[in-house]
């Protein structure tokens, strides 16, 4: 057979530290690679076993400080590798690898002892020590492949990747690297699995260098470019590059596809998945890179390639960098003087201070530089020194610093040529009450960054993620009150939410649940089946709920489309509606309190809701399940003039009068109503007419009347003598009133009429009282707890009959 047929296509797979942290995981690596077609040349890049690089760096610090720990630390690393060896390999296969590891450990020991003796560690020595982890892991993984019956070899990347001598994060010499790698691989059988050390490289004199923390990704793409691989897969422990940091944004989701540039931007902005330089070797040949989860290989992960997926939102992801400071160089003497910026950056560069972002006002009166907080002090000193002369003369008025800042950025290829995008970004921040300190957008237009206070960062990222990156319209609900209404609502949500998601693409999430005894919150959404249970288990443990805690949570959540459902009858909650509406938080409630406080408060509520188009819905405050308020508003909007509203607005009192008609005594009727849950805990709260008065007040205000509660005439059914007695006494004494009520009912019935408790709005007056109803009235046949309202509609729209809403 002809050996020099077309070379096999190459696939490079990289496994990070967590993917090789245990023997179990290393076996998983073998399985994953077995999943790649054997007709391909399989190259595997591995990091050090998880945590080992950190342990080695800590050992250096121990040696430097002579803490006496460095040997112990090294021995722990050694023990870990030896244990792995036992677990992975059969006895007869161990000796060879053991010798290899042993030699590396004695080198490591010498190096650490050297640091200890000299109390000094050069960049070169540091790289030699830090790079040991990969030199140890590759032989182990290769041996695991052999144990599973594969031909496999461990390769040290110091023989493949050439760099300059910038220790800590060396610069790759591409041509040499590609050539060396190709030559080395040409000498190996194509069917052999090559397990290559990540992270490390060497200078042309053979001195070990490293590619920077997390540099193994870069190793993988360098090898891929050298070998013209068909694809690169980076195996990690997350489902790909996420739309935001999941610790900040619980709803963050894996991005299916990114361009190289987008991935580069995200890596730069600390999306921990990729080393920033990773994409560079792939660009020229357009080699695609996929990020996949070792623990969830079925998930498709993120594909990074020359193409990008066009999304409607244009923005792919929201990222942030914390712990930054802003340095401002200010002064009128800087106007029109060329070279100021160059000198400023020069001064910072001399001290190795990296500038993350710059902004200069076109008036040239100030230059603002964003850098790592830890560099801020040195930066100020550098600038003060560089501009000492200008400071003296007053041309530069000062160098000032803003600390505790963060950069938030939206990133996406299709942000280019999208007018209004920046507007949307900043209006989103504005609506979330995030103050923007500085802004930058590069001409590439694929990233807009804003500096904000660290305390605003989480809110900013969440709001932006919601505004731009959302896959599904999510509606976030916070429910206060778990009584009859609240519990019923939870049941309804549970039944309806699958339909809402499927038919309307609405993802309704309960992000908080509270009653007086406690509260639970969960930005990811509380499972509706378990909601009440969680409230009792977790929520009650936290003690009674303070309204302020709920309000703070709502305001700080940064969630968009957030709605408070107030299923309480609380005045205190009602008082906070305007604040919530002002913050773009919707309110939906059957609580009548807010709309029946004074007229000025009602006006304020309506204004707040209208101004920002925030939902404020209270349909069920009147007429229970009947759509009375919306019908009334529809009539008003279509030009009708409502002359009169009349109705039985209380199911409780409807039941009372039906019972009286059926010959039941007054006391018995009240008792039964109470027993069957038709009344408030104290039936006087229904009998006093207050509830009906409130409903009437709401309807009148909807009609445009300006009216206060005191102006509603109310006939209370609570006997004056029983107004202030305890509940038990009230219930006990009720039968004293059975006779008078019986007489009153019988008299009306003798005429063929009925008595009902009616609310009436007529000629601008509101009244609530017991009225005689004739058989012609639409209410005459009303029975039980039915609610009914009727209205008279003005002549000018053509019908003057009475109808039933
Ligand atoms: N082991 C190195 C580190 O932890 C390189 C890598 O994991 O990619 O930074
Ligand atoms: Mg690592």
Structure description:
By secondary structure, this protein is of the alpha/beta class. It contains 29 helices and 28 strands. α3 runs antiparallel to α4 (91-118). The radius of gyration is 37 Å and the shape is elongated. 43% of the residues are buried. Residues 791-805 have low confidence and may be disordered. The protein binds aspartic acid and magnesium ion (MG). Magnesium ion (MG) binds at residues 16-17, 47, 53, 214. Residues 16-17, 47, 53, 214 line the site of magnesium ion.
In short, what is this structure?
With 805 residues, the chain is an alpha/beta fold. It is built from 29 helices and 28 strands. The strands form five sheets. An eight-stranded mixed sheet has the order 3-4-2-1-7-9-10-8, sandwiched between helices. A six-stranded antiparallel sheet has the order 12-13-11-14-16-15. A six-stranded mixed sheet has the order 19-18-17-20-21-22.
% residues in beta strands: 15-25%
Mean pLDDT reading: 88
Backbone structural class: alpha/beta
Say which molecules are bound, naming each kind only once: aspartic acid, magnesium ion
Distance between the termini: 90 Å
Radius of gyration: 37 Å
Shape: elongated
Main sheet properties: 8 strands, mixed
- What is the number of E strands? 28
Please estimate the helix content. Answer: 40-55%
Model regions low in confidence, pLDDT < 50 over at least 5 residues: 791-805
Strand arrangement across the biggest beta sheet:
3-4-2-1-7-9-10-8
Q: Give the number of helices.
A: 29
């Amino acid at each position: 057979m002809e050996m020099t047929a077309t070379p096999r296509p190459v696939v490079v797979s990289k496994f990070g530290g967590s993917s090789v942290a245990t023997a179990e995981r290393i076996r998983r690596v073998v399985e994953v690679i077995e999943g790649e077609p054997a007709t391909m040349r399989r190259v595997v890049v591995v990091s050090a076993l998880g945590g080992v690089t950190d342990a080695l760096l800590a050992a250096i610090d121990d040696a430097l400080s002579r803490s006496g720990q460095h040997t112990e630390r090294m021995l722990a690393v050694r023990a870990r590798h030896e244990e792995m060896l036992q677990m992975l390999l059969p006895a007869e296969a161990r000796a060879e690898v053991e010798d290899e590891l042993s030699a590396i450990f004695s080198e490591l020991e010498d190096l650490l002892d050297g640091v200890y003796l000299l109390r000094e560690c050069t960049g070169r020595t540091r790289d030699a020590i830090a790079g040991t982890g990969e030199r140890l892991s590759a032989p182990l993984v290769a041996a695991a492949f052999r144990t599973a019956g594969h031909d496999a070899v461990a390769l040290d990347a110091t023989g493949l990747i050439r760099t300059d001598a910038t220790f800590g994060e060396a610069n790759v010499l591409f041509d040499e690297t590609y050539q060396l790698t190709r030559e080395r691989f040409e000498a190996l059988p194509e069917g052999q699995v090559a397990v290559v050390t990540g992270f490390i490289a060497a200078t042309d004199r053979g001195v070990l260098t490293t590619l920077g923390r997390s540099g193994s990704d870069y190793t993988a793409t360098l090898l891929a470019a050298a070998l013209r691989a068909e694809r690169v897969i980076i195996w990690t422990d997350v489902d790909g590059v996420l739309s935001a940091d999941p610790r900040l944004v619980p709803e963050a989701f894996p991005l299916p596809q990114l361009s190289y540039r987008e991935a580069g931007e995200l890596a730069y902005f600390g999306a921990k998945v990729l080393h920033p330089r990773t994409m560079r070797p792939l660009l020229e040949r357009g080699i695609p890179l996929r990020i996949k989860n070792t623990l969830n290989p079925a998930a498709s992960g993120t594909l990074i390639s020359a193409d990008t997926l066009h999304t409607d939102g244009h923005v792919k992801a929201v990222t942030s960098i914390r712990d930054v400071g802003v340095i401002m160089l200010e002064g009128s003497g800087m106007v029109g003087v060329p070279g100021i910026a160059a000198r400023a950056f020069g001064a910072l560069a001399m001290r190795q201070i990296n500038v993350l972002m710059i902004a200069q006002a076109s008036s040239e009166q100030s230059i603002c530089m964003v850098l790592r907080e830890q560099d801020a002090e040195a930066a100020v000193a550098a600038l003060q020194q560089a501009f000492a002369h200008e400071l003296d003369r007053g041309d530069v008025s000062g160098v000032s610093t803003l600390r505790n800042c963060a950069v938030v950025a939206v990133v996406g290829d299709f942000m280019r040529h999208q007018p209004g995008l920046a507007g949307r970004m900043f209006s989103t921040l504005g609506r979330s009450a995030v103050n923007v300190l500085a802004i930058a957008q590069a001409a590439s237009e694929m990233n807009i960054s804003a500096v904000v206070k660290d305390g605003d960062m989480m809110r900013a990222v969440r709001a932006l993620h919601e505004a731009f990156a959302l896959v599904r319209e999510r509606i976030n609900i916070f429910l206060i009150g778990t009584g009859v209404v609240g519990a019923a609502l939870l049941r309804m949500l549970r039944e309806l939410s699958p339909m809402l998601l499927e038919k309307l693409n609405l993802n309704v999430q309960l992000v908080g649940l509270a009653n007086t005894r406690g509260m639970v919150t969960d930005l990811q959404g509380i499972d509706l089946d378990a909601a009440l249970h969680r409230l009792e288990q977790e929520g009650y443990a936290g003690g009674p709920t303070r309204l302020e805690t709920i309000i703070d949570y709502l305001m700080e959540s940064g969630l968009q489309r957030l709605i408070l459902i107030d299923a309480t009858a609380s005045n205190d909650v009602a008082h906070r509606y305007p604040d919530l509406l002002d913050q773009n938080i919707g309110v939906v409630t059957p609580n009548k309190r807010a709309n029946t406080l004074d007229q000025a408060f009602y006006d304020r509520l309506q204004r707040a809701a209208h101004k920002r188009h925030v939902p404020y819905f209270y349909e069920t405050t009147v007429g229970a399940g009947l759509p009375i308020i919306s019908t009334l508003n529809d009539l008003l909007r279509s030009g009708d003039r409502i002359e009169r509203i009349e109705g039985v607005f209380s199911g409780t009192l409807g039941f009372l009068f039906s019972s009286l008609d059926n010959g039941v005594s007054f006391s018995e009727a009240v008792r039964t109503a109470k027993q069957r849950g038709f009344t408030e805990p104290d039936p006087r709260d229904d009998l006093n007419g207050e509830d009906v008065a409130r409903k009437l007040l709401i309807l009148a205000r909807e009609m445009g009347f300006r009216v206060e509660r005191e102006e509603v005439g109310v006939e209370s059914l609570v006997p004056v003598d029983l107004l202030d007695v305890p509940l038990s006494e009230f219930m006990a004494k009720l039968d004293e009133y059975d006779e008078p009520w019986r007489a009153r009912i019988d008299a009306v019935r003798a005429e063929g009429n009925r008595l009902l408790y009616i609310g009436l709005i007529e000629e601008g007056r509101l009244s609530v009282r017991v009225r005689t109803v004739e058989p012609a009235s639409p209410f005459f046949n009303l029975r039980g707890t039915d609610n009914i309202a009727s209205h008279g509609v003005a002549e000018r729209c053509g019908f003057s009959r009475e109808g039933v809403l």
